[in-house]
Amino acid sequence: MLDRTDFLAKWDKRLEWPLACVAGIFLAAYSVQVLAQPSGIARAVLSAVVAAAWLVFAVDYIVRLAVAPEKGRWFVRHLLDLAVVALPLLRPLRLLRLVILFGALQKAVGGAIRGRVVIYTAASAVLLIYVASLAILEAERSRGDAVITTFGDAVWWSITTVTTVGYGDYAPVTTTGRIIAALLMIGGISLIGIVTATLASWIVQRVAQEDAANQVATGQQIQQLHDELVELRIAINRSQMVRAEGFEPPTAGV
Amino acid sequence: MLDRTDFLAKWDKRLEWPLACVAGIFLAAYSVQVLAQPSGIARAVLSAVVAAAWLVFAVDYIVRLAVAPEKGRWFVRHLLDLAVVALPLLRPLRLLRLVILFGALQKAVGGAIRGRVVIYTAASAVLLIYVASLAILEAERSRGDAVITTFGDAVWWSITTVTTVGYGDYAPVTTTGRIIAALLMIGGISLIGIVTATLASWIVQRVAQEDAANQVATGQQIQQLHDELVELRIAINRSQMVRAEGFEPPTAGV
Amino acid sequence: MLDRTDFLAKWDKRLEWPLACVAGIFLAAYSVQVLAQPSGIARAVLSAVVAAAWLVFAVDYIVRLAVAPEKGRWFVRHLLDLAVVALPLLRPLRLLRLVILFGALQKAVGGAIRGRVVIYTAASAVLLIYVASLAILEAERSRGDAVITTFGDAVWWSITTVTTVGYGDYAPVTTTGRIIAALLMIGGISLIGIVTATLASWIVQRVAQEDAANQVATGQQIQQLHDELVELRIAINRSQMVRAEGFEPPTAGV
Amino acid sequence: MLDRTDFLAKWDKRLEWPLACVAGIFLAAYSVQVLAQPSGIARAVLSAVVAAAWLVFAVDYIVRLAVAPEKGRWFVRHLLDLAVVALPLLRPLRLLRLVILFGALQKAVGGAIRGRVVIYTAASAVLLIYVASLAILEAERSRGDAVITTFGDAVWWSITTVTTVGYGDYAPVTTTGRIIAALLMIGGISLIGIVTATLASWIVQRVAQEDAANQVATGQQIQQLHDELVELRIAINRSQMVRAEGFEPPTAGV
Q1: Parent domain of A191
Q2: Residue A144: what pLDDT?
């Protein structure tokens, strides 16, 4: 069982970069496919690339599921990985892992968790809006009564949806388009939730810092107390020894 | 009075499963009623099942109200139970209690409160959208100027409403439909609130863990201090005794 | 200056009930005025009642401003009171203070702050939606191209606005209507914010309670430590005295 | 490197007021330009003023970037400053810094962080809505199929967008207008997030204050414990000295 966990960890680490590259290639091929609508050989090649990318993700998922020691638990905990395989819309989200690798960004933001959350949220929002726009355009434009027919309209619709503004000047009419819309709404609610939560964490911390009189006791303060107790004990022990030594002279003197 | 509280606790425990089953049967019968629109005997049977389910919930409510020691207080604290009896839309929410019973899910998520909150929120969202779609479809489709006339449209409308996107491409026109919509909006705001709150709790905790220098003092650290104090006291007591013993020899010696 | 603060406190306490009554009378008169649209004497009487209620609020505001020791500061801190005088929409909000007075409710909820927040939020939401519906109906129905022409439509519009769903099937077209809408949106955002914040507070507390190993040190635990320290000091003092007493015999004995 | 940081700090301090004035002049000129739509010389003068304001911001940005010790880091951390230069919509936000300077406001609110957050949020919201209304009006009205053609409509659209209500009765149709809308939505989500976060911080604090039994240990309580430990140590030291002194007599007496 340890070997399997070991194997999984190695597999994940080794495939980190290759899978991110596959996600990038998928995104590029999908973009060209939707935006340029090529025909002939170009179309066939792009379809093959998209299919190959899907195959790579599927194989990665199946191998990891097969190797996982507790399959049921792994399955429940990796539902998002299944979604990445099943839904093309979510596949490029794997690219988000690349964000970690930009040294410059990391350096500027520092290791602070809130800084990292902000960068991830911004990158996720941009990627989500872009991919959702491609997907909705592909799903909708073939329908006669569709209103989302250009990439510009698709991006505009994605932005109004992800922010939950929802003017309704553009709205999907196909079932595929509505499933994409539902996923986008869930993404939007999560992004808004993260923005609010990060702000809340920041305000709570600032208020706590300001409220000097009621500052919460820190582990450091407890540590100082501990050090003083230790010193006190040493002092008492010394006093015992002093006494023991100090006693002897009189008894010896008598 | 203790007997009554006792009786209530037993009643609740015994009826946990049967009431969840009734809620499930209600949901199934209601779904067939709305989606298949049967006629003749099938229709009568389904109506009877729905009515019987309602009766069970009503009797359960009345018995518990009758037995409750402080009726006024019980009434105010169980307004949601009254709503479950009064509003068919809320009745299947009783099914949510079943979520607890899926051992596999529980095992995968662990006992962590945030994990449980996520599962409940997801299950509530799915159930809410499904039941609201059934209810709005039943309420609207008989009206001539209604725009929500198929189950697909109803689901789409429910999703746009629960996420507060509200495109307005579909909107209820009947009073019943609008009451359902208002309940769905309240549900949506609660769900979004829970998502944000869970994220906030997670970020606050992560920030606190990271901020090692200002880590909040834990009960465990206080316990360690306490243990040291106890040891110190033992040391002092021992020193007193040593002194008491050590003293006697000289006085005795003199 | 103390006399003035004293006078203000008395003024506020004495006028608590009368002003709530005036707000109630205002709401009743305003409701009849908008919903029944009476003519002749009834109309004149209602207008007089509404005007009198406004006068009472205005006099109350002016007296309190005149008496306030630091007028500038009082003015900034009581902008909401000015808004209550200036905007009929906000005037019935004074009724919210009555919520405190329902003993039964208080008893059922207990003194817990989150319980009180929930009750206030629910009461505010209902009152806000009702008053906004009246105000928007009065503002819009006289215009030819208005879509909000019945009270039912007005309530429906208020609910979709306060939840920020905003279908757009009904929208105000007059300037007055849009000002009411803007106030309602601000109210809606505040209400949603309170719902989310209350949930966040609840989840943060539950997570903290669950995380027993890292439970935050409480003042109570510190108190216990303090008590132990005091006992320790007493023990040391006693030991000193014992020694002082124990010493004398030998010196006396010699 | 220290000289550069020094220079930057001085530059920022010296230019605080002048840049706020330039932002104010920009806002005034831009308002006249959009609302009065002057022609002839007035138009040329206003365009020159707007261009000059932009130049000032651009020069300020370039100087600070040129002087910054770590350019890459500075660039990432001051993306907002770049946005202020690049986007006229954001330029008047510099005026927000003036809020600090209103002594009366500061005095009334006190130094409390939540009070300051509320004032900033309100001022930002008003400024954002006003500038977005000007910008959208300028972007849209030249288009034939635009629905936002008067300043009143523009303000109404801005309010429905910033609150994420989004009726859809007015929606931008030009690319520029949609970019403005996207920025406004981001601003709206941030404002709503701040409102919710401030409320959450307030409720968390109130709940903590109320929950007296489980009150979190404060630094002050730890300080008291520390003081007691110090006194205890003094007592023990004294006891050691007393013993040392008290010992000598008997030995001396013998």
Answers
A1: 102-216
A2: 82
